[in-house]
Amino acid sequence: MPLRTARTAPYLFLAPFVLSFLIFGAYPIVRSMILSLYITSGPEAQHFVGLDNYLHLLQDPDFWTAFRNTATFALGSVLLQLPLSLGLALLLNRADMRGRTVFRFIFFSPNLMGLVFSALLFMLILAPRFGLLNAALHALFGLPSTTRWLSTPGLVMPALIMVALWLYAGFNMVYFLAALQAVDGELYEAATIDGAGRWSQFWHVTLPGIRPVLIFVVVLSTIGSFQLFELAFLLLGNSSGPDQAGLTIVMYLYQNGFLGGDLGYASAIGWTLALMVLLLAMIQLRITGTGKEAR
């Protein structure tokens, strides 16, 4: 009996995870894949259409608007956020930096706030006339204080990128700090003896040393950017903004699935997004050579 118990004990411990994964993970994935082949009107009315949802998606101008907005946000976020995060990490990793622990917490603290609170905060900061950003731009550069960041089509995406920068720059900074602290200090000593300057040390010692974390952060940030929904939805007053300037792929999925009732088309949008993210991740890993190194 004890021997039999010892043999079955691992399976008993694994059973809760396996059951929860099958119910809340595997079943929804398979169900959404099947559902993407149907046109639905509510949970009961379903009509099989095969791949027509995906074909319609390729001809849907609203989907391509959402894709363009999402890609713009992802590109802007990655190109601005990661250099800023790395710069902050390099600054706060210096041994002669006073109060660096406090500054690390200050830069990381926005990530501790909920998205609802952050959206409400930036609705006030970006408000015309009395908003902090407009007041600062007016005082420093003489720009008009009536700029409507969230109701002007050309300014909606820069505003979203700005908020994301405030939210997540400190979060990625922590990854870079951990990577920088793992770089062997003797490599810097050897580079200094060889006459390498700070830029040469950064290019030939720091970047190769943090390369795995850098690739991880780039891929993670890209995936997170393509999943943009809550921040834009809340900032734009539960809408896609003026002229759909804030419409994202996930927001378009929400509009079709939960507002329009076509869960089949929404599932097709979701699987298309998943394939896009997978393709982008594979391209990034191929460019950086990570996949080849793993083999």
**The CATH homologous superfamily:** MetI-like
What profile does the largest beta sheet have? 2 strands, antiparallel
Low-confidence stretches: none
Principal-axes geometry comes out as: globular
The whole-angstrom Rg is 24 Å
**What is the percent of helical residues?**
over 70%
Distance between the termini: 45 Å
Sheet with the most strands: spatial strand order: 1-2
Q: Give the helix/strand class.
A: mainly alpha
Q: DSSP strand (E) fraction?
A: under 5%
Give the number of domains.
Answer: 1
| The CATH topology | MetI-like fold
Reported CATH architecture: Orthogonal Bundle
Under the CATH scheme, which class? Mainly Alpha
Number of strands: 2
SSE pattern:
HEEHHHHHHHHHHHH
What is the count of helical runs? 13
How confident is the prediction overall: mean pLDDT?
A: 87
Brief summary:
With about 300 residues, this protein is mostly helical. Helices cover about 75% and strands about 5% of the residues. Helix 3 crosses helix 11 and helix 4 packs antiparallel against helix 7.
Task: Walk me through the structure.
By secondary structure, the chain is mostly helical. The chain has one domain (52-294): MetI-like (MetI-like fold), CATH 1.10.3720.10. 74% of the residues lie in helices and 3% in strands. The chain has a two-stranded antiparallel sheet. Helix 4 packs antiparallel against helix 7 (153-182). The protein starts with a helix and ends with a helix. The model has no long low-confidence stretch (mean pLDDT 87).
